[in-house]
Amino acid sequence: MNSLFFYGSLRHVPLLETVLGRRLDAVNSRLAALAGYAVYAVAEGPFPMLVQQQGANAQGLVVTDLSKQDIARLDFYEGGFDYDLIDVSLEDGTLAQVYVCAADRWQALDVWDFSDWEQRWAEMSCFAAVEVMGYFLTHTRDQVAAMFPQIRARAWSKFLGAYRHAGQGVFEGKVEIEKITRAYVGYFAFDEVSLRHERFDGSMSELLERSYMVAGDAALVLPYDPVRDRVLLVEQVRMGPIGRGDPEIWHLEPIAGRIDPGETAEQAAQREAREEASLDLSKLELVSKGYASPGESTAYFHIFVGLADLPDAAAVIGGLAEEQENIRSRLISFDKFMKMAERQSLANTPLALLAYWLAYHRSRLRS
C-alpha cells in the first residue's frame, strides 16, 4: 500500500487530480498531520517547502492506495521542483512518504498559508499542471523545470483570459474541439488543433485542422512627457524581422514585456519601464486591450501611455543583464513622432496605434 502525505499545493484536490490524471477516491484520502515539521513559503515561487522544526505540526492530506503509475506521475511533477520522497510516520502512527527538497534548495520565508495560496494561485497552478503533465513520458523532469518560467507565464495568461469578456456582441456559436496536440515547445509553444464550429447558418463546419502560437499576456507602454511634449521609444534587435528577411533588424518599439504570474498589467508596465529604461511612470492611461493576431496567436496585449519626466538624461542603454537584453532609449518630440507615423516609418503596429491615440488625447494630457 502506497500512502503519501501532501502538505503543500497538492493538498488542493483539483491540482492533485490533474497530476494523477484521474479522479481521487474520497475513501482513500483524509486529513492528517506530521509532527516535527513546519510548512514555509519559498521566495522563488508560489509553493512551499517542509522544514524540520521541533514542536511544529504540519497539516495536510494523506492519500492511500496509490498505484505505481500514480507515483511515477507524482515523481515527474514534484521532481521538476527538486522534491523527492522520504519515509515518515504521521501523528496518528500511519507510515507514509512525503516529498521534500534539500534544506538549501529554496529560500524559506514565512509560514505558508494554504487558504491564501488557494485563493491566489490554485487556478493558475492547475493550468500549469495540465501543461506539465502533458510532457509526461516525452520530456525529463529537468527539461520541464527549465521551461517552467514559460509554462507559468502561459498558465497566468490562461487565468487572465478566463475573466476577460470584451463585450463585442458577436456570434456565440458552438465549438467542438476534437484534439489539441502540442507540436513544439521552447520559449514559445505551438499547438495543432482539430475542431468543428457552428456556422452562421446554424450548420456545423467540416473538421478543420488549424494551429496557433501559445504566448503569454504582455504589457506595452509608451512613456510621454506632457511638459516637454516628447515620447520615449526603445530600440533593440528583434526576431520577427530576422525571420522575415527585413534589412532593418533593430526596431523602434514601445516598452513591452510579459506579465509575470501574480502581476496585473499595470504592475508589469511599471516594472518593464524600470527594467528597460530606468523610468518611473507617474500615471498610466489605458489605450487598448486585445489580441495581437487572433488568427494565429494567443498573444494578448495590454497597451498604455505612461506619463513620465523625460529629460535629456532619460536616453539610456538598459535591459536586464540576466536576460541578455541590450535596449537603447530614444527621445523623440511629439511632432517628429507623428511625422514618422504619417510616413509609415513606425514598423510596429501597437506603436502606430499609440501615436494616433496620443494625438487624440494630447491636449487633455498636457492640460
UniProtKB/TrEMBL annotation:
Required cofactor(s) = Mg(2+)
From which domain of life does this come? Bacteria
Domain spans labelled Nudix hydrolase: 214-354
Q: Which UniProt key words apply to this protein?
A: Magnesium, Metal-binding, Transferase
Ranges that cross the membrane: none
Q: Name one GO molecular function term.
A: transferase activity
Binding residues annotated for Mg(2+), in chain numbering: A256, E272, E276, E325
Q: Where is this motif: Nudix box?
A: 257-279
Q: Which Pfam families match?
A: GGACT (PF06094), NUDIX (PF00293)
User: Cross-referenced PANTHER family, in alphabetical order?
Assistant: AIG2-LIKE PROTEIN D
Its recorded name reads Putative gamma-glutamylcyclotransferase
> Whose protein is this, by species?
Sulfitobacter undariae
